[in-house]
Specification:
Low-confidence stretches: 4-15, 282-290
Number of strands: 0
Oligomer: single chain
Largest sheet: none
Helix content: over 70%
Order of helices and strands: HHHHHHHHHHHHHHHHHHHHH
Mean pLDDT: 77
């Protein structure tokens, strides 16, 4: 109890000792890149190589050679035209950079939105399941007076939805936002902020990185958090998002509270999923701000009374322990023995 009181008075421990993560093995990015290349996902492989090189991770030298190979393959005219054309015409991208880009490009014209609305209408007529998120975003896309505000965010969101890079919670938020825009013919301040943050994320990180980064975002606040980190380091944010997966926002929020958050972000990027498990296993309260600071705010002036009670309780327990030891092992008086 005395130790707890001292810990509280000193302000608690730091969120994470970065040096502890050095004991963990580095994530094998080369194997991941080679796997992507075997699947002919050249754009994604190239993006991962760029992240490794930009952060100067231990495997950066080997990543440069793989980057050159992936660039060479992705630049082949037939490969690029086929993938971009497929994404543009069908609007159904896989996760390759080219098809994702082609799908987004089609949505920058009215063709893409009309195509998607027509497809959703056909699904409805034929009894297939429709997607209200796609319908809402296509409707917003056709309201051309909002181009300056929304920019290419609706087009990117549609592509993310199609490749499964969107949570149900985010989908519901977008449905409500799109419905409000269509009804009022206006974008409220919250909507403008949402699109602004998303456009920042897209501009700084690009399509492929953004798809991984926003994949598990639940709401507009998450997008704001991710956009803030992408401004600082799109490469580290992308690799941390790949490692943290569903815990992305939780981990990034915790890292931002560390005294040396850029170094911790880079270290997590280097170590991968193993470091994420290590950081989060200590409990949310320990990593989402100091417990001592939380108790100070909660208890106000009674905080020091709590510390005093802990000190007193600890002292009393020590006294009782000493007394019990004397009862168990009685110390005889030497004068009495004489």
């Amino acid at each position: 109890m005395i130790a707890v009181a001292l810990w509280l008075l000193l302000g608690g421990r730091d969120t994470c000792d970065i040096s502890v993560l050095d004991r963990l093995p580095d994530h094998d990015y080369l194997a991941e890149i080679n796997d992507l290349m075997k699947q002919h996902r050249w754009g994604e492989a190239k993006t991962l190589c760029e992240d490794v090189i930009a952060l100067d991770l231990p495997c950066a030298k080997d990543a440069k050679a793989l980057k050159e190979k992936s660039e060479s393959e992705s630049k082949k005219i037939f490969n690029r035209l086929y993938k971009v054309g497929k994404g543009f015409i069908t609007g159904e991208p896989d996760k390759s950079l080219e098809e994702l880009g082609g799908s987004v490009a089609s949505d920058l014209f009215m063709y893409g939105d009309i195509r998607d609305l027509a497809k959703q209408g056909w699904y409805k007529v034929t009894g297939r399941e429709t997607d209200p998120v796609i319908i809402g975003l296509a409707a917003v896309g056709l309201l051309t007076e909002f181009v300056d505000v929304a920019d290419w965010a609706p087009a990117a969101l549609k592509a993310f939805r199609k490749v499964g890079a969107m949570t149900d919670a985010m989908g519901k938020y977008i449905i409500n936002l799109a419905s409000n825009i269509v009804k009022t013919k206006k974008i409220n301040s919250a909507g403008k902020t949402f699109f602004k943050n998303l456009n920042t994320l897209l501009d700084q990180a690009g399509f492929i990185r953004s798809a991984s980064i926003v994949k598990h975002a639940q709401n507009a606040d998450n997008i704001a958090l991710l956009a803030k980190n992408v401004r600082q380091s799109p490469h580290a944010t992308h690799l941390v998002a790949r490692a943290a997966d569903k815990q992305t926002c939780e981990v990034i929020e915790a890292v931002n509270k560390h005294k040396d958050s850029p170094a911790l972000m880079k270290k997590i990027a280097q170590k991968g999923a193993g470091s994420v498990k290590f950081i989060t296993r200590g409990g949310k309260i320990m990593y989402k701000g100091h417990l001592a600071q939380f108790l100070r705010q909660l208890l106000g002036g009674y905080f020091y009374l709590l510390c005093l009670i802990l000190f007193g309780g600890g002292g009393f327990l020590i006294y009782r322990s000493i007394k019990n030891i004397k009862n168990i092992f009685p110390f005889k008086n030497k004068k009495a023995q004489a």
